[in-house]
Specification:
The complex is a heterotrimer of chains A (278), B (290) and C (435).
Chain A lengths: L11 H25 L3 H6 L12 H9 L2 H32 L5 H10 L5 H15 L5 H5 L6 H13 L3 H8 L4 H12 L1 H17 L2 H6 L8 H10 L7 H21 L1 H13 L1
Chain B lengths: L2 H32 L2 E3 L5 E3 L3 H7 L2 H32 L4 H12 L5 H12 L5 H8 L11 H16 L1 H12 L3 H9 L4 H12 L1 H16 L3 H6 L11 H11 L3 H33 L1
Antiparallel strand pairs in B: 1-2
Helix pairs in contact in B: 2-14, 3-4, 3-7, 3-8, 3-11, 4-8, 8-11, 11-14, 13-14
Chain C lengths: L1 H17 L8 E6 L5 H4 L10 H16 L4 E6 L5 H9 L6 E5 H9 L7 H6 L9 H7 E2 L2 E2 L2 E2 L1 E2 L2 E6 H6 L3 E2 L2 E2 L5 H15 L12 H14 L16 H15 L9 H9 L5 E5 L3 H9 L8 E5 L9 E2 L3 E4 L7 H16 L1 H4 L5 E2 L2 H5 L1 H4 L4 H4 L2 H4 E2 L8 H16 L5 H17 L2
Parallel strand pairs in C: 1-2, 1-3, 13-16
Antiparallel strand pairs in C: 3-14, 4-5, 6-14, 7-15, 8-11, 8-12, 9-10
Helix pairs in contact in C: 10-11, 10-20, 20-21
Classes of the chains: A mainly alpha (278), B mainly alpha (290), C alpha+beta (435).
Chain lengths: 278, 290, 435
């Protein structure tokens, strides 16, 4: 953020608005944290008990001792990282191909890919479920990762980015006798790192937050992602009294991604801004 | 270009096109085909032509779900757009506190839908929720956010807005960064008031960003699912059931795959038409201004 | 350099993910509802010390795992009732091996050929089907074959706070006085509210589509109303049904019941003594009994009785839980693993019914240890008067959802009663027409 005109301080009414907004953002999170630090029996009587001590880490101990949450966390990581890596690779290759190379039907293929932008996930998820069933792909990491790879937006985005890079760079490399792939790998890919970051953040978050597909594709709890696992805990709340335990699961499951977010906040925010200026 | 290059290009795009065709295009056409059948979830198929679509448009529950979906979109999209625009305007500064606030307002976006609904369930629920505790403390009757038909849709909307502030705010911030500084300098020379500057320079310059935000959000909110399923299960009596939850229930609760896919195709057309219409409206206006 | 390191890391993640421990034990996927209580019973195998449905079943499963190390057991805990997930799993071609299922739902799956017949499994497990209770047999036999191992009979009861009832003058000879007609019920309820300032009924009406349906079924069955004339039709918009729904609507409009409570809220209200009677399942007998006996109890006296006879005969709509085996290709080892579990589950039937359910095994029902448990003599009658739905109707689970939705609209005043019943009738008939 460098615009000079906006270096001045916030006017008071706006400041008040922002602070109130921030309070609304924080209050639910704080409440969740407090609930997670209380014993379940105390909360069953009255959840307002969360506002006063004694607090305990007992719920977190229980999670580490005998719950599936750590496993679901790992599954979510594997699926999201796998999806992100594969999307970056596929979309960069295709983006480079569409932006820089000439081959038969290039234009029509590109339009074919763009058409996919119009198809929402919900329109294909049921037939895709049938398709994966006939291939025997359900309940596997592959089955959870694959649907994320059909990312026409990623190709569009990378194509635009590669188009904007001056052509003299790869032409110079070409004169040195480098192969197409070498130029892509050594020259253009490093130049596209900001775009990779943007697309990567989007893909990772999208996959991390995906709910419907893992809900119907993961059939045993050892393949659940965090979203699906916590959904079953949440719906089961009606039959338990473990409010504190439930909230501890929510906190425990959010902490890793929040830490990643805080550490890479600058990059993530930058990546988001990058998406907007495209 | 050498001959090798002419076909070598294929090698770069083929992996993606392969995955894409198999994972998106093939299921899309499978869906069109299935929707013309009385098909159950477990493989039974019987050709019925357009019967599923005819049934759909005679189904009051389908209209109810459509109504809920539109109400949710109408509650969420304008509010989200205005709030995030204001936030972006307020936080578009190089101060440290602005950076912290930006981070804070974006933070909810990294949480998954399950966690967001878990958090909000125990903010909203009338017996154990945070809001209910505040209300009881000041002697008011808690609001049945998750069970009264007047409150369930607002509850889902509030949750969604809280969750979704991050991305549109970032888009607006990026849009603000792109406004050339000399435009403001010129305005300052003309002694334009803050309001004039805002309405004459800032807002018009954010037109494209605003259209982008509205289009993205409309498409997203028409497909709202997890929040409704997890917070209210679409209740009471279906009054907060959006179209995607309707599709889910038909497919996996009633096993009527063909009927569910037909509803999904209608949703697809709806999203497409609305997006195109918004795009068309916005570009037409642009021409008119010129 | 950085990129290749990144790719290397990714490759490592994948290899790690794909090389699961080689396991040549037969896998047994057990899927159950009844909630998640890992916080309390995470590793416990002490079945005798466990309480509540969730606790007892969790410890039973833990114990099975501990005693059968040669079977690779995976447990899925699904949200109640878990049928959409089961449908998705079957459609995905990867169903679990054992699933908890309501007996009323079995014909949905059996009728579509999705369940494996269990006669041979039961025989191999040493379970003589003649030892099963009649209600259990009725629930598990479809088309002359066993498609489930019944595990209990469940019904709904009136759980009563006797302290408050006494305060309202609704106790006689130490027993709660229950109404004999809908008008008398309203009269009791008004008197109760005037005397105690608290609602007569506590009802979990939110996110509990089955609750009102169970009430409706109960009182229609009590009047011998033919709800399902055949497998393709339901008849709901009848004078009897309208009268029943009207009663529940009046309770709501006059605030003679708690409003806008889901199950956790309602149960907290009952335990905290904030209302007179909580109509809910047999499965809460154990927990409420404990709550009433706790030293700092706010529940006071606790009793429970079958639903009062308001119309027609005394009858109750009963259902039951059962273990089913979805049809799938299985190796002999996997089949043996299933057999072992069924045998194990039957052995622990006596522990399971400490929840308050009625056992599915005659031996357990007749055992003095079962009769000696509190309140069991009060409900034993239910095994005889209990009525189930006709098994020629498929999609009972979906039907229950549709009716529940319309009844909810009727009792909360969203829709006039006759329109809600007509809508329910239409929607169910449309569903049945599509089978």
């Amino acid at each position: 953020m460098s615009a000079a005109a906006t270096r001045n301080r916030l006017p008071l009414p706006a400041l008040i608005g922002v602070v109130i907004g921030a309070a609304i953002m924080v209050a639910p999170l704080l409440w969740t944290l407090l609930l997670s630090l209380k014993s379940n029996s105390e909360l069953m009587r009255d959840s307002a008990a969360a506002l006063s001590p004694p607090y305990t880490l007992g719920n977190y101990r229980d999670i580490l001792a005998g719950s599936d949450v750590p496993l679901w966390l790992l599954n979510s990581l594997i699926v999201s990282l796998g999806t992100t890596a594969a999307v970056l690779l596929l979309c960069s290759l295709a983006g480079y191909g569409f932006a820089r190379l000439d081959f038969p039907c290039r234009r029509s293929l590109f339009i074919f890919v763009l058409l996919g932008l119009a198809i929402p996930e919900q329109a294909v998820i049921l037939p895709r479920h049938q398709l994966f069933a006939s291939m025997g792909w359900h309940n596997s990491y592959g089955g959870l990762i694959l649907p994320g790879l059909a990312a026409p937006f990623g190709v569009f985005f990378m194509t635009q980015y590669f188009r904007a890079i001056p052509k003299d760079l790869d032409e110079a490399a070409m004169l040195d006798g480098a192969s197409r792939f070498r130029i892509f790998w050594k020259v253009l890919l490093p130049l596209s790192l900001p775009a990779q970051a943007t697309l990567g953040v989007f893909t990772f978050l999208g996959s991390w937050n995906d709910y419907w597909w893992p809900l119907i594709s993961a059939t045993t709890s050892d393949k659940y992602t965090l979203t699906v696992g916590l959904a079953s805990s949440q719906m089961n709340y009606a039959q338990t009294s473990g409010l504190g335990f439930l909230m501890a699961q929510a906190v425990f499951a959010s902490i890793p991604i929040l830490i990643v977010y805080i550490i890479f906040q600058k990059q993530i925010v930058g990546a988001m801004a990058g998406a907007a200026t495209r | 270009m050498t001959r090798h290059d002419r076909f070598g290009g294929f090698a770069f795009v083929l992996p993606f096109v392969g995955f894409y065709s198999f994972l998106l295009i093939l299921p899309f056409f499978m869906g069109l085909w299935i929707s013309l059948h009385r098909a159950d979830l477990f493989g039974a198929r019987k050709w019925v032509g357009l019967d599923n679509y005819v049934r759909l448009f005679g189904d009051p529950v389908f209209y109810q779900a459509m109504g809920t979906t539109f109400t949710l979109a109408l509650l969420i999209v304008p509010a989200l757009t205005v709030i995030t625009l204001l936030l972006a305007l307020a936080l578009n500064r190089a101060t440290r506190s602005a950076a912290i606030f930006r981070g804070l307002f974006f933070s909810s976006s990294v949480l998954s839908v399950t966690i967001v609904t878990l958090i909000w369930r125990f903010v909203l629920t009338p017996d154990a929720g945070l809001i209910a505790k505040v209300f009881t403390a000041v002697g008011l009757e808690p609001i049945p956010f998750l069970s009264h038909p007047d409150w369930t849709i607002p509850a889902i909307a509030i949750t969604t807005i809280w969750w979704g502030l991050g991305l549109p705010m970032m888009l607006f911030l990026a849009g603000l960064q792109q406004i050339p500084q000399d435009m403001y300098e010129a305005a300052a020379l003309d002694r334009a008031s803050r309001w004039t500057t805002f309405f004459r320079i800032t807002l018009p310059s954010l037109r494209r960003t605003t259209i982008l935000v509205v289009m993205l959000q409309t498409a997203a909110q028409l497909q709202i699912f997890g929040q409704a399923q997890l917070l209210t299960s679409g209740g009471p009596s279906g009054s907060s059931r959006p179209i995607v939850l309707y599709i889910y229930e038909i497919a996996f609760g009633r096993w009527e795959l063909g009927y569910a896919v037909a509803a999904a195709e209608v949703l697809f057309l709806l999203v497409l038409v609305l997006t195109l219409a918004q795009y068309w409206l916005s570009t037409r206006k642009e021409d008119a201004i010129r | 350099m950085k990129r290749s390191r990144f790719l290397l890391a990714m490759a490592a993640v994948f290899t790690l993910a794909s090389c699961e421990r080689v396991d040549d034990r037969p896998t047994l996927v057990i899927q159950r509802f009844f909630g998640e209580c890992g916080a309390v019973y995470g590793r416990s195998i002490d079945v005798g010390k466990a309480d509540t449905e969730c606790g007892i079943l969790t410890t039973i499963l833990n114990r099975f795992i501990a005693e059968n190390r040669d079977i690779n057991v995976k447990v899925n805990v699904v949200a109640w009732p878990g049928y959409p997930q089961l449908a998705a799993q079957i459609a995905a071609g990867d169903p679990p091996d054992l699933v908890t299922m309501h007996q009323s739902v079995i014909s949905d799956y059996q009728g579509r050929g999705l369940l494996a017949p269990l006669d041979q499994y039961l025989a191999e497990a040493g379970i003589d089907t003649d030892d099963l209770t009649l209600a259990g047999q009725r629930g598990a036999v479809k088309d002359g074959r066993y498609y489930a191992m019944p595990w209990d009979t469940i019904g709904r009861l009136w759980h009563i706070n006797t302290d408050l009832m006494a305060k309202a003058g609704l106790m006689a000879n130490g027993k709660p006085v229950l109404p004999n007609s809908p008008d008398e019920l309203l009269e009791h309820a008004r008197r109760f509210k005037a005397a105690t300032g608290k609602p007569y009924l506590i009802q979990a009406q939110v996110s509990a589509p089955d609750y009102l349906v169970a009430n409706l079924y109960t009182y229609l069955l009590a009047q011998d109303v033919q709800m399902f004339p055949d497998g393709r039709h339901i008849r709901l918009n009848t004078p009897q049904a309208r009268e029943i729904v009207q009663l529940y609507k009046t309770l709501n409009t006059e605030k003679l019941t708690t409003i806008a409570q889901d199950f956790p809220a309602a149960t907290a209200s009952f335990v905290n003594g904030e209302g007179g009677i909580f109509p809910t399942g047999t499965w809460m007998i154990g927990p409420y009994d404990d709550a009433a006996r706790a030293s700092d109890s706010r529940l006071g006296g606790y009793a429970m009785l079958p639903f009062p006879r308001l119309w027609g005969n005394s009858a109750a709509f009963v259902d039951g839980h059962a273990w089913v085996v979805p049809a799938d290709e299985r190796t002999p080892e996997e089949r043996r693993a299933i057999t072992r579990f069924l045998k194990f589950a039957a052995q622990y039937n006596a522990d399971w019914v400490r929840t308050g359910h009625l056992p599915a095994l005659r031996a357990v029902l007749d055992a003095p240890s079962f009769r000696a448990q509190p309140h069991r003599s009060d409900i034993a009658a239910m095994a005889a008067t209990g009525r189930q739905l006709p098994d020629y109707v498929q999609r009972q689970s979906a039907i229950q959802g549709l009716i529940g939705e319309e009844l909810e609209a009727a009792v909360t005043g969203l829709k006039p009663i006759d329109r809600a019943l007509a809508d329910a009738e239409r929607r169910v008939n449309e569903l049945l027409a599509q089978i």
